Amino acid sequence: MNFKTKAVFLDRDGVINIDKTYVYKIDDFEFVDGIFEVLKEFLKKGYKLFIVTNQSGIGRGYYSEDDFFKLTSYMLDKLKKEGIEITKVYHCPHSPESKCECRKPKPAMLLRAKEEFDVDMANSIMIGDKKSDIEAGKNAKVGKTIFIGKKDEPLADISIKDIKELLLS
């Protein structure tokens, strides 16, 4: 029998927290309504949770990687207090102009998780609020992509307007 890991890959800004553009201060970090309940549901169903986030504000000099790590530590601590374990956070610190290999829509962050945690991509899910998130999921051959936004994303397998809609499915 094959007991590979099934994963939910989550973008951060706009999925985990409200996207206020270049969020790096704890004071600006606000969890999306319903995210705790949704993440607990995924954990109950046996998924490991990974955050995969482009953080171009680092590459653009708006904040430091240390600022990112401080905020990430705060976020993980708050999630843990809610009984939610994030297996790992992957981030791309580069600006779009750098043409790096890790920035979504390239799949490198997801593929690193696949390597490090033996993730079964076909039985995994990518949740994002930008087309590049969905493209990264497709490029990594993730089984299902879910887009959160006011308009539908044709590339996604499912488009929803609010993360809480996942509690109904």
Beta percentage is: 15-25%
CATH fourth-tier homologous superfamily? HAD superfamily/HAD-like
Which spans have pLDDT < 50 for at least 5 consecutive residues?
none
Overall number of strands: 6
Mean pLDDT: 96
Named CATH topology: Rossmann fold
* N-to-C span: 28 Å
Query: Helical proportion?
Result: 25-40%
Trace the largest sheet across and list its strands. 3-2-1-4-5-6
Give the radius of gyration.
Answer: 15 Å
Question: What secondary-structure arrangement, pairings included, does this model have?
Answer:
Layout (H helix, E strand, L loop, with lengths): L5 E5 L24 H10 L2 E8 L1 H4 L5 H17 L4 E7 L15 H10 L7 E4 L2 H9 L4 E5 L9 E3 L9
Parallel strand pairs: 1-2, 1-4, 2-3, 4-5, 5-6
